[in-house]
Every structure is written in C-alpha cells, then in structure tokens.
Amino acid sequence: MPPASANNSDGYDIAFRLLMGVLAVVVPLSHLAWLSGNITACLTGHAWASYQPTTALLHPDQLWPKAGETSLLIGARVIPVTVLLALVATAGLLWARHKNNGGGRKKKITGMAKLKDIEPLMAEAITDKARSLRPSLKTAKHIDARDTGILLGNLQGTRHEVRMGYEDVAVAIMAPRSGKTTSLAIPSILNAPGPVLLTSNKAAGDAYTATLDARAAVGRVWSMDPQQIAHAAREMWWNPLADAKTLDGAGRLAGHFLAASVDASQQGDFWSKAGSNILSQLFLAAALDERPITDVMQWLAFPADRTPLDILRDHDFTAVAAQLKGTVEGPPETRDGIYETARQYAAALLNSEIAAWITPQEDIPEFRPAEFVTSTDTLYLLSKDGGGGASALIAACADSVMRAATAQAERAGGRLDPPMLAILDEAANVCKISDLPDLYSHLGSRGIIPITILQSYRQGQKVWGDAGMDAMWSAATVKVIGSGIDDPDFADKLSRLIGDHDVETTSTSTSESGKSTSVSMRQERILPADEIRALPKGTALVFATGMRAAMLDLRPWYLEPGADELAAASARASKAITARAITKHAPSQADFGSAA
C-alpha cells in the first residue's frame, strides 16, 4: 500500500490540473462574454460597459440592465461559447495536422543547416563569387540573381534562396514526380545566362515543351530527335566523326556505342572490348577520309573490304591498320564474333531515319559544337529509354559539346563567360558518357555546369559501376536528394552524412520519498533513414562541399511569376507534338485503297 504522503502528492497534482483546466475555460470565456456583450449592446443602442469580464459571464444583466433577455442570451452566452468551441476545434485540427505532416520532425531535424551554415550559397556570397568568376560582371552595378547561380530552392521555412554557383557541378537523385523536372531542370534552363544543353527521354509536358518558346527568344533552338519523340521536322544534322580524326576521338565515339549497349559490368569482357576496338578503327578511317558514318556499316558487313586499311595507311596510321588487318585475317570464328558484336553496337546506323540526323544534308544547317558554346543557343537531345545506338549518338553529341566548351574555355583564359549549363536528365538511360565521373573533376572550373539527374544511386552504379558512381558522387560539389529514396543502404548513408545531435531525455521515477526527475543527454540521428525515405514532395536535401546538409523547399516553375504564360506556351508545344504524331501515324488513302 503506498504511503499517505504519496497519495497526498497525487491528490494535489490532480487538484492543480483541475484548477488550471477550469481557468483555461473560464478566463477566455469571460473575456469573450464581455466583448461580445458590449458589441451586442452597441448594436442594439445601449452603452458600452466597463471592463468586468467576470460579471459579464456570471451576471450580464448587471452590466447591461436595459438590454433585453434575448440580446443578453445571444451576446453574453451563445456567441462566446460558440466562438470558444470554434477556437478549440481549430486549434485541435491544426495540432493534428502538425503532428501528421511532420510536426514531430522539427525536433528530429534540429541540427540541419541554418542560414549561417550555408552562407556561401546565399545571395550576398553567391553574388560576390559571380563577380570574381565572370569578367563581364566585375563592373556591373546590379547583377540579376539568374546571373549569380542556379536556384535550388528556399531554405526550409524561410524565403532565403539557396543557389549553387557557376563553378559547381551537381548530381541530383530524385524519383519520378518528385520535382526533378518542374523544380530543378526547367527553372535552371529558363534562367540560364548562356548556352543550354538538355538530354531527355520525354517531350510533351516536359522540360522540352516548357522551355522551347522561352529559349527561342534568347537564341537559336536546336533539336536532335532521331527517334521522333517530339515528331519534329529535321532542321539540323550533326557530324559525329568531326572529333574522330584522332585515335582518342574515335575511341571515345566507339565507347559511347559500347556504353549504350552494355552495362559497366560487361564492358570489360573480350567481345565487348574487341567490338569497341573495331568500331574505333573504322570510325577513324571514315573520319580521315571524310566519309559519312554510315559507311562504317558497309565495312562491318564485309570484313574483307580493304578500303579502311588503305585509308589508315595513307594517313600514316600504320599501327592501327596492322591491328585491323590482324583482326580481319585472324581465325574466322573469332573475327566473325568480333564483327557481329560491333554490328550490334552500331545497329542504329542502319535506320535511315536515325542516320539522316548524322549525315550531311545540303538544305539543312549543320550543328557545330564549337559555335554553339559561344552563343546563347539551346540544344535539346531526345532519345527513348533503351535507345541503344540512338542513345549512343545522344551521348556522343553531349560529350562533343562539353569538350568543345572545354576547348573554348581554355582559349578564353580558363572559363566560359557566360557559363554553359548541361542538364543531363535521365542520364543513366539516354546519356551514358563513360568517363562522365572523371569529367566532373574539372568541368566546373571551366564554366561548364553539369547537373546529372538520376532516379536512384543504384541506377548510376549500373551505368558507371560502383567506383565510377562513387567518384561522381565525391566530385559533385552539390548533391540534391529529393523524395522517393527507397534504397535503404543509400538512405542510411545519407543519414550518416547528415550526422548526429544531442537530445535531452527526461525520466521520472517514483519511490517511497516521492517523485524524482533526471535529465540526461544522448546521441540521435538528425534525420534517420526512414525520415529520408519519407521526405514529402516539394522538399529536398542539399549537400554542398564543406557545409552542413540543408533542407530546402523546392520552387516549381508553375508557382513562379510568369507561370501562366509559360504554361500556355508549353500547352501549345505539347498540342503541336500531338498533332504531328497524329499526322505521322494517320492511315493514308493508299492504305485504305489497299485494304479495300
């Protein structure tokens, strides 16, 4: 049986809580009765009573003796009680919503970056950095925010913009419908001060249609659409062999066909390497003789054709010619296997519709990367998922543009001004540049700003291997993590990167002498893996080099000023794509005649 002192203590606690509960109801109710009663009295032509809330609640007839009973009932009883109940209900609803939508999270994300922790990404610092990076801004009195860096979002719960500078390189890992296009790709393209490169596997209702008109207003728009995703007319052609007149350039081009066809784990086997080598040798021969790339398919069909051997020898590539000759004259089984592998890698070149985009066209302008990187033009590179050789051409073109930008930056003193933005959306599907992780180490310093957008970390590992993806992750100075991270290992890795913080724990115990309270500190994850997985749409984590991880509120383009005009332009572009698709696939009169 508990001692009498414990029972008395419990009784006092209950009495105190009961008293506080009564006061919590009576005090606001009496003030509401006095205020509502006075308002009612004034409306009915009576005088305003002095401040006596208790009297107003208990004896309203003493404050307003000339008011009628009905007026007193409504003004000093019904209205105060109704208002109080409404306030309590509203407070309860807001509290429930707060708890359900992450009200408990405020405690858990204590330790995330505050303004001072990410000061280098804030307006003043990012503007000063832009002046030092871009000679054209050094003497400018006012610099637009778009010229200082790429908007990532607002620091959560504030209006302070967080931007990555024009020397940063970024990797964004965001699941579908988590804001990667609406909050990252599209706003970045719309506000880019220089040339823009976008790779994508979608057209209608995506970054292509949302930015097409806006970018056409600042420069020329180039669209490479070999698989007719946008069903656009062919208004350009590009020569992939322009950079293949050296063994290194031809090897890079062949590497794009290899990467588009097999995963990183399979690129080291004999057949893959041998097939890639044959392609590079034939690409080199075609480039040296200024032939169209489609001639390579003829040489692959007839290994005995000595034309590529003669071209290589005539241009003093005797060692390469000897290698090619050794393969051609080797054991038939091995030779046929190598050539068949190469044919599969380059099979897209057999498609006349695809080949038309990469072979000379007399009445269509040629896209020249060296000219593009000094303009304010936009290049849209579109390819379907699993496009094979077609996606190889997309990767090759993107690679060619970034290499041309690097060369131009070196000629301009080290950096492009204005910088070039390269949005590599769906990079793991349509833009598999094998050495992209290595390029990340120097692109930012050249004023070339890549943002590689992936759906998951494992997707990157599949394309570039574990070492390659780790290298890209480490080289990225800005990492954006959106909602939809379902990989438990990656979520735990992020949780560990965010770190721990001290949490105060209060414990209460009861003994014969009464209650005692103790306070202790323990370490707890700032953001556990399950909280990272449950990030709500519209938010993102940002990891910047040398700074605490920050939680951002994303800024989708359709909530920004001018969104209505952009939405209308996007709708028009999407409608045009639909109309072109209907026209293209509509049965002709000849079809009806043959069916009859």
From TrEMBL:
Q: Where is the TraD/TraG TraM recognition site domain?
A: 419-537
In terms of Pfam families, this protein maps to: TraG-D_C
Q: Which InterPro entries match?
A: P-loop_NTPase, T4SS-coupling_protein, TraG-D_C
**Low complexity bias locations:** 505-520
Database matches in SUPFAM superfamilies: P-loop containing nucleoside triphosphate hydrolases
Keyword Membrane in record: yes
List cellular component terms (GO).
plasma membrane
The region called Disordered is annotated at 502-522
Membrane-crossing residues? 14-34, 74-96
Give the membrane topology, semicolon-separated if more than one. Answer: Multi-pass membrane protein
Which locations, inside or outside the cell, does it occupy?
A: Cell membrane
Q: Which UniProt keywords apply?
A: Cell membrane, Membrane, Transmembrane, Transmembrane helix
- Name of this protein: TraD/TraG TraM recognition site domain-containing protein
